[in-house]
Amino acid sequence: MKIRVFYAMPEAARALGLGWDFAREMEAKHPNSDEIDATVLMRDGRGVEVRLDLTHTELMTVEVESRSDIFGMMQGEVWSSGAKQEAAQDLIRSLGLSHTSMSIGDIVVEEDNHVYMVDRDGYRHLGTLRVVAT
User: Fold this and answer.
1) What are 17-66's pLDDT values in tens digits?
2) How many CA atoms lie within 13 A of 111 on its CB side?
3) How many CA atoms lie within 13 A of 128 on its CB side?
4) Which end of the chain is more exposed for a tag (fewer CB within 10 A), N or C?
5) CA-CA distance, 127 to 42, in Å (whole number)?
6) Is pLDDT at 79 greater than 60 in this prediction?
7) How far is CA 85 from the centre of its chain?
8) What are the domain boundaries of the chain?
């Protein structure tokens, strides 16, 4: 199956880096904080839109057997080492991203447009990606 990989932008990575529950808790305690505003735009699968365009950048599309294969294959030492290292680092920089290895807060979108965030205990289903014309 083909899966689109989105890495959290630096601001969202800070907000989501300790996991979904922590980010939601911090948002509730500090609703006007610039540090956690990115999480306001993301809601779980209860019908509220997921705004990846404001929190994440699409890195690449990968071909895998299942979602469980992605985390290991997206570690820096796997996909961006050796001869591929310079090209991978150039790609990360050109997209304004700050990390090479997939980590908590990053997103995968399956072919059926279901969106999953890497969380502390695996993947958390956030809903379905909906493309909105601007």
Assistant:
1) 778 777 767 665 655 444 433 333 444 444 444 567 778 899 999 999 99
2) 7
3) 5
4) C
5) 10
6) yes
7) 21
8) 2-128
Give the residue carrying structure tokens 């304004």. 96
From 1, 4, 12, 3, select the one nearest 97 (Cα to Cα). 12
Two structure tokens written together for 113: 């447009």
8 A C-beta contact, residue 123 and residue 42: no
Residue 129 DSSP class: -
Q: Please, are residues 43 and 54 in contact by the beta-carbon 8 Å criterion?
A: no
Residue 92 phi/psi, 5-degree rounding, is -60, -45
Arithmetic mean of pLDDT, 95-111: 92
Cα 47 from chain centroid (whole Å): 19
Residue recorded with tokens 């880096």: 17
3-class state of residue 37 by DSSP: helix
The tokens of 25 are what?
A: 């808790």
